Amino acid sequence: MYQPPHFREERPEVLHALMRAHPLATLVTLADGRLDANHIPMLLDAERGPQGTLLAHIARANDLARRHDPDTEVLVIFQGVEGYITPSWYETKRETGKVVPTWNYITVHVHGRLRILDDPAWLRAQITALTNTHEASRSLPWHVDDAPEAFLQAQIKGIVGLEIEITSLEGKWKVSQNRPEADREGVHAGLSERGDLAMAELVKRASEG
């Protein structure tokens, strides 16, 4: 990914936080000379492997389960908040007019080695962990064991597991930090007025260093 130094984010805890907050990732693979992309909710186990491991599952009928070359690295993209930035928010527009629109965004790119797993116990643990993670905030969370056992076993037969040991992490935080202070203040005010509060907060934090 194109990565100017002022947009680079390297702190593991920051990258991991985005991956957990936006778990629906795009998995890009290469097989038979063709790129393919799948959109898959991922779990991060930061303690497994030198840089962590991603855990997921896909339908057994997905071609990825059969066509992936285990010797070829995969790319996993986690996309955070994003938004259009109008030059009308810049003080520089009023001073010189030499401004153009842009797009702010935060993203994490993960490279790693993919393994396909066909182990019912592993799959049950993965879907349980994934479900518990996303049901935790509900007052009456649904649990995997709420479903009939025979039904669960049949569902598990229809999926395979993915385990991606992370070999590199790359983060890009493009949040107006390359603009003068007055422009950043204008962007923060404009985003706040538009209701893009998450991006407004990121611009504010970048301004504070």
* Model regions low in confidence, pLDDT < 50 over at least 5 residues: none
Q: Summarize the amount of helix as a percent range.
A: 25-40%
- Tell me, briefly, the overall form: elongated
What do the pLDDT scores average to? 95
Strand content: 25-35%
Order of helices and strands: EHEEEEHEHEHHEHH
Overall number of strands: 8
What would you report as the Rg, rounded to the nearest angstrom?
A: 21 Å
Biggest sheet overview: 8 strands, antiparallel
Specify the number of helices. 7
* First-last Cα distance: 24 Å
What structural class do the secondary elements suggest? alpha+beta
Give a short summary of the structure.
This protein is 33% helix and 34% strand.
Provide an overview of this structure.
The chain is of the alpha+beta class. The chain is built from 7 helices and 8 strands, in the order E-H-E-E-E-E-H-E-H-E-H-H-E-H-H. Strands 1, 2, 3, 4, 5, 6, 7 and 8 form an 8-stranded antiparallel β-sheet that branches. Helix 6 runs antiparallel to helix 7. The mean pLDDT is 95.
